[in-house]
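Q: Hi! Curious about what Flagellar biosynthetic protein FlhB looks like structurally. Here's the sequence.
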Amino acid sequence: MAEDDDSSQEKTEEASARKLEKAREEGQVPRSRDLTTTAVLMIAAIGLYVFAEFMGNKIIGISRENFTLTRAAIYDPNAMIAHLASAIYDGLFSIAPLMALLLIASIVGPIALGGWNYSTKAMEPKLSRMDPLAGIKRMFSVKSLIELLKALAKVLVILGATIFVLKFFAQDMFRLVDESTNIAIIHSLEISILATIALCATTIAIAAIDVPIQIYEYNKKLKMSRQDQKDESKDTDGKPEVKGRIRQLQREMAQRRMMSNVPQADVIITNPEHFSVALRYDPETMETPLMIAKGGDHTALKIREIAKAHNIEIIQSPVLARAIFYTTDVDQEIPSGLYLAVAQVLAYVFQLRNYRKGKGDRPIYPRNINVPRDLRYNTSGKVD
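A: Let's find out. The predicted structure is below.
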C-alpha cells in the first residue's frame, strides 16, 4: 500500500492545461538568455551590414569637420563647444537606426520562446526570496553547479571563437594604420560586420542547445503526480459527491420538463405497467410523430396519471411501448420501422375523437399491432 502511495506521488504526468495557464499567470514561462543574446547579435550584424555605408559616411563627415579647423576656430572656445555639439548629434544620428534595431531585438528575443507574458504576480515581493538560508542552499545546489558548468562552457566557446576571429582578422586590423582615413573607416566596419557574423554563428549553436534544455526543464518542473491531477480535478470540477448531486438535480429538472410535455400528447402507449411513452403528432405541421416523454416503473405510472387527468387516450401495447422506449429519445422522431404500427394507434385515437364529437362510427380498438421483429425488445432492453 505504501509503495502505491509513493508511486502515485511521482511526477510522471504531463502538466494539464490548467496548470500551464496558472504558471503563465504567475509569470512562469520558458525563457532562454542565449536565444536573446543570439537575437541581439544577429540583428546587430544585419544592422551593421545594412547601415555600414551610412554610418561610415557619417563618421567620415564627423572626422573631417572636427579635424579641419581654421585658426580662428582653434582660439575660439565657443567654436569648440559648437564642434563638440555637432559631433555628438551626428554621432547619435549615425547609430540611431542600429540602436532602434537592437531595441526591437531586445524585446523580440525574450518572447521568441514562451511568447509575450505580463504578470503582476511575478513582481510581487516574496519573503521566501529574502531568506538567506534558502539563498545559500540555492547557491550550492546541484542545479547551481550545472548552471555554473554551462556558463563556463559558454565562456570557453565564445572565447575560443573570439580568439579565432582576432587571429583571422589580425593582418587586416594591423593594415588599418597604413590606410587613409576614409578607407580605414570603411575597412574597420567591414571587419566588425564579419566578426559579428562569426560570433553570431557561435551563439546560434549555443542557443540551439539551450532552447531544448530550457523547454525540457520547464516541462519537467510543471509535471504532475496522479494525486496532483486528482486534486486539480476536484478543484476544477468539484468533489464527486457534489458532481453526483448536480447530476441528480439535472435529471430531476429534465424529468420535470418532460412531465410538463405529457398534457400535449395525443396518445400514451403502455406496457401496461413497466413502460409508458407519450406521442404527439400534428398532421399539418409535423411529418413524423414525436416522442415527447417516456419512463419506466414509477415514472411510467406518473405519465399515466397525468394522461388520465388530461383525458389523453391510453393504449396498451407492450411490444410497441418497449420498441419506442428503447429506440427513441425524448423529443425525437420515431424510427421509420415503427411508422406503420404508430399509424395504427394514431388512426384509432383520431377516429375516436371524431366519434366522441358525433362524427363517424366507433373505431375498433387496435389489438394486433404489427412491430417488426428486429425492433421487438423484452423488458431487459434486448431484442427478442
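A: A fun detail: The CA atoms of residues 152 and 361 lie 105 Å apart.
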